[in-house]
Structure formats: structure tokens, C-alpha cells
Automatic annotation (TrEMBL):
Entry keyword Membrane: yes
Predominant localisation class: membrane
Membrane topology field: Multi-pass membrane protein
Cellular component terms per the entry's GO annotation: membrane
Top-level taxon: Eukaryota
Descriptive protein name: Protein YOP1
Keyword Membrane found: yes
Amino acid sequence: MADFASSIQGQLKSFDSRFASNGFLQQLEARTKLPKSYLAAGAFAFYLILIFINVGGIGEILANIVGFVIPTYLSLIALRTKTSEDDTQLLTYWIVFSFLNVIEFWSKTILYMIPFYWFLKTIFVLYIALPQTGGASLIYRTFISPVADKYIVKAKKSDDIKDAVHGAASKASGSSIHN
């Protein structure tokens, strides 16, 4: 238990040092006399409590905000990197998130019977959104890929089809088409 507490304290200190130059958090820290990390942890806990109690159906919108905001921010960062590893992770996330939303749309009446569904969805979305967990890759490999592989045209076949279409178009128009 002491290791867990010291790990949490280390994370909080890391958060404080990472956001030391953030003007908004500095002002908030000065007004409340609480460290930035405690303010962020408190705000996150309050957010989760709002989702948990789901007053007026607010849990649905808050759960979906988590599902869009964090990955969108990470996607914007990934667009500026040279490697494709983060791109692959985020594309996998968006596929899993899309499947979740389609299933959710078609089963909404059943979902309202599940207690604390939006809270559980938020925890799940955080699990698949954060790259540290590898959740999106696991869900994709376990559930989506086996089904999708049956219906996706193999790369070789699609390249052959694309070449045949371009060839036919070239013959018909009498000119070459560029890829």
C-alpha cells in the first residue's frame, strides 16, 4: 500500500512540475492555496461523480466528451510526429470507439437498464483512449479484427482491381491516369 501511495504522490508531483508554467493553473493555485495536481484530481473526481449519478442524463454527454476530447488532442499531436506508431494506435482507437457507438445506438433501450452504464462507458473509453493501456489494440485484435478480416478485400486484390480500373479508364479515354 505504501508503494501505491508513493506512486500516486510521484504522479502528482510530476503533474505539478509539468504544468508549472500554466498561467490558469497558477492563478487557481494562488487563489485556493492547493497544488495544481490536487485541483486537477478534484476536478476529475467531480467529473466522474457527475457521470456516476447521471442527473438529467448528463452522464451520456460527459462520457462522450471524454471519448472525443482526449483522443482528438492526441490525434492532433500525432499529426505532427514523424513516426506512424501513434497514428496506428489512434486509428485503432477511432475504429473501436466507432464500433462502440454504433452498437450503443442500436441498443440504447437496453443500455438504460444497466446501472451506471455511462460511468462504466467512461472508464472503458479511458482504457481504450490512453496509449499507456493498449486497450484499443487489445479490443481490436480480440473482437473487431476477426470479424472485419472476413469482409475486407485483401491488399493484393484491391491493388489488382485498382490497376484494372485505371487500365480500362486509360484505354477508354486514350490517355494515362496518374495515381
